[in-house]
């Protein structure tokens, strides 16, 4: 009677265990990186909300300036309202929805542009710029804009780390098994024209 060989089944079991460990490790890594993206997305939303909270006081302040251009602060109010029209659940899940992400980012960029224009127009109103309230709001807005740029950059770094992991071996072999759980994360893009350096005029007046 020949003795049974267990080599074959043991090899199969070993392969299954190795594959299982690889898939499990890959899954855990993707979860960790995905949670890092979600956390950083929350930080981006926080700084955007801080900016939105400053706008009512800013609009009220410039309204009090004699002859201040109404269309300018109206544009800011409309841009802020446009951001608020995007449902919170859509914003929260935007990291897994490129269309929603692009919509939210565009609305925020438009608000930022409207605010920049308002502050530029305010340069023509020395009495407004001299008020303590306006100076405080302007400083807070400038600090918030810097924080927004910082948090957006950190978000892009977290998204890049996740996307790199999911698109390289061994994750790329298994990521499809989890459906939409690990969709590619979208990035913030520079606004049109941001890549162009500002024009500098060295001519003397």
Overview of the molecule:
The chain has 205 residues and is mostly helical. 71% of the residues lie in helices and 0% in strands. The longest helix has 57 residues.
**What profile does the largest beta sheet have?**
none
Radius of gyration: 26 Å
For the record, the count of structural domains works out to 1
Termini Cα gap:
107 Å
Instruction: Determine the CATH superfamily.
Output: LemA-like domain
Low-confidence regions = 193-205
The computed structural class is: mainly alpha
Query: Do you know the CATH architecture?
Result: Up-down Bundle
User: Proportion of β residues?
Assistant: under 5%
Assign the CATH topology.
de novo design (two linked rop proteins)
Task: Write out key terms for the chains shown.
205 residues; de novo design (two linked rop proteins); 0% strand; disordered C terminus
Short summary of the structure?
The chain has 205 residues and is an all-alpha fold. The protein has helices spanning 7-63, 70-84, 88-92, 98-122, 126-129, 132-166, 171-174.
Give the topology.
Elements: H1 7-63, H2 70-84, H3 88-92, H4 98-122, H5 126-129, H6 132-166, H7 171-174
Helix pairs in contact: 1-2, 1-6, 2-4
């Amino acid at each position: 009677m020949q003795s049974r060989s267990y080599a074959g089944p043991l090899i199969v079991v070993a392969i299954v265990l190795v594959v299982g460990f690889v898939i499990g490790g890959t899954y855990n890594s993707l979860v960790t990186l995905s949670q890092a993206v979600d956390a950083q997305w929350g930080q981006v939303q926080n700084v955007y909300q801080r900016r939105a909270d400053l706008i009512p006081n800013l609009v009220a302040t410039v309204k009090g300036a004699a002859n201040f251009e109404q269309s300018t602060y109206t544009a800011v109010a409309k841009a802020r309202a446009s951001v608020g029209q995007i449902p919170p659940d859509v914003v929260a899940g935007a990291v897994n929805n490129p269309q929603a992400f692009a919509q939210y980012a565009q609305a925020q960029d438009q608000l930022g542009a409207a605010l920049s224009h308002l502050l530029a127009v305010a340069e023509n109103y020395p009495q407004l710029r001299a008020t303590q309230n306006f100076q405080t709001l302007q400083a807070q807005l400038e600090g918030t804009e810097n924080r927004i740029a910082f948090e957006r950059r950190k978000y892009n770094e977290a998204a890049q780390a996740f996307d790199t992991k999911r698109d390289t071996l061994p994750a790329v072999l298994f990521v499809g098994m989890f459906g939409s759980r690990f969709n590619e994360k979208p990035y913030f893009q520079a606004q049109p024209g941001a890549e162009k350096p500002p024009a500098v005029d060295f001519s003397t007046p």
